[in-house]
Amino acid sequence: MSxxxxxxxxxxxxxxxxxxxxxxxxxxxxxxxxxxxxxxxxQITLGGKGGEESYA
Length: 56
What we know:
Elements: H1 3-16, H2 21-40, E1 44-45, E2 54-55
Antiparallel strand pairs: 1-2
């Protein structure tokens, strides 16, 4: 991630304020669902323990 993108993300997050744990957990599950779908489609490869990740 570029420095500028990182700065923008930090700025966005700092403006949000506190977030409920249940909301965070729901979003984490959604991210995992998307990652698994992309892996199943062959668009990304997930590394195992100590493995290298590669992205298509």
